[in-house]
Design goal:
Number of strands of chain A: 0
Protein name (chains A, B): TetR family transcriptional regulator
Distance between the termini of chain A: 57 Å
Shape of chain A: elongated
Keywords (chains A, B): DNA-binding
Organism (chains A, B): Paractinoplanes ovalisporus
Oligomer: homodimer
Radius of gyration of chain A: 22 Å
Number of helices of chain A: 11
InterPro entries (chains A, B): Homeodomain-like_sf (IPR009057), HTH-type_TetR-like_transc_reg (IPR050109), HTH_TetR (IPR001647), Tet_transcr_reg_TetR-rel_C_sf (IPR036271), TetR_C_16 (IPR041678)
Order of helices and strands of chain A: HHHHHHHHHHH
Strand content of chain A: under 5%
Largest sheet of chain A: none
Structural class of chain A: mainly alpha
Largest interface: A-B, 106 and 106 residues
DNA sequence: CGCTAATATCAACACGTGTTGAGATTTTCG
DNA sequence: CGAAAATCTCAACACGTGTTGATATTAGCG
């Protein structure tokens, strides 16, 4: 293979965008520390030094990737507006759609989230723990149908989310409160989740579309 | 086979424990990749090579740290048992106590959780995003008292927890379900959280002790 | 054309990493 | 005691990292 041509290449300038997209994908897949400049450069088909020339440092590149489109924020904010009736599902639906469904919004958001997670074996540990310990232990004391298992899983995920918010990310309003206050607040929500009322039970139920 | 105790007896096996505790603290503080063998060794006051002699590799050391005391599992499992009335708060309380209150159980659990989180700037990004974007956007459409703000924070934490369980850790039962099913299930719980019924409102409320 | 600025590659630096082998020191036991 | 084994330190290896300076090639413009 002949030596790759040096110097500026003819035609339109798409390289900057390619680097950014490669970085976004890598950060979202491997996390921040595990992602290397050289790998991003290889994905984009350029030299590592060029990446450093576009963005002064790895941190700045990461910052450029983190830009969340305002559309996502708007869609999530809108869901809070409206009648109190059905606000729970409305917010959950909007939240999940923005984070999972639409690639244009989920890409940077997941990059941010997964960027904080080391793609080490620890994620596997976490999964095993939640599945085998938390959920299996809970299912032993409850009914063992599909719907109940799902509800336990969602409850476990919610609880872990609270721990993350309090102990790891340390979101002020949530982290500042006492354990008892949080337990009381979250407990009421979990109560509805674990002992569903009539109108919100059933597995394959379709949401009001 | 009779155990021929040859060689030096661990008369003072304090070093092994010191290494393990240093590793636990470091993993919990800095995460897995950011934690170095040399730093652990320095914390324990020994050479890095000794750490590698006790535990064959960094992965094995991490695995040794991850050992969750069965007491923690039992306490969390017990909470699911009992009457359906108050199961939500009972589970939440037990969960939070094990993860936050008791250092003997919270240390390895937080090490596992934080071990997966890179202590980079990304955690700060995450905090800013949750606080400034999610919570502030929601508060604009709701009342602005302390209790409401807390409930929004808990709701946001729960939602992020679900995303983590689905997209990052990929807990089977939760990740396999459709977006709509998850939204409907979680939505019902959030509904109770955001539009509280009479008996579960109020901030400084004491749980039934 | 010539000039400047933007692209792009290359080689290398300084550093930190996990890991290893040799060897010193201390303890235990036959 | 003397041998064996465990504990512990030291020095170094091989490697990958982010980052930098020099340099080559091209685009745009007067």
């Amino acid at each position: 293979m002949p030596a790759p041509k040096r110097g500026r290449r003819p035609g339109q300038n798409e390289t900057r965008q390619a680097v950014l997209e490669a970085a976004r994908a890598r950060f979202a897949t491997d996390g921040f520390t595990a992602t290397t400049i050289r790998r991003i450069a290889a994905d984009a088909g350029v030299d590592a030094a060029l990446v450093m020339q576009f963005y002064k440092s790895k941190d700045e590149l990461f910052g450029a990737v983190m830009s969340v489109p305002p559309e996502a924020l708007d869609r999530m904010t809108e869901a809070w507006k409206g009648p109190a009736d059905g606000i729970g599902e409305r917010v959950a639906q909007a939240f999940l759609e923005v984070w999972e469904r639409d690639p244009r919004t989920s890409a940077p958001l997941l990059a941010m989230l997964r960027g904080t997670i080391a793609r080490d074996q620890a994620a596997g540990h976490m999964r095993d723990f939640i599945e085998a310990r938390l959920m299996r232990g809970a299912a032993a004391h409850l009914r063992d149908d599909h719907d109940t298992r799902l509800r336990i899983g969602v409850a476990a995920a919610m609880l872990v989310g609270i721990i993350v918010a309090r102990c790891v990310v340390q979101v002020p309003t949530v982290a500042d409160e006492s354990l008892e206050t949080i337990a009381a607040t979250a407990g009421a929500a979990l109560q509805e989740l674990l002992t569903p009322t009539e109108q919100s039970s059933g597995t394959g139920r379709q949401p009001a579309s």
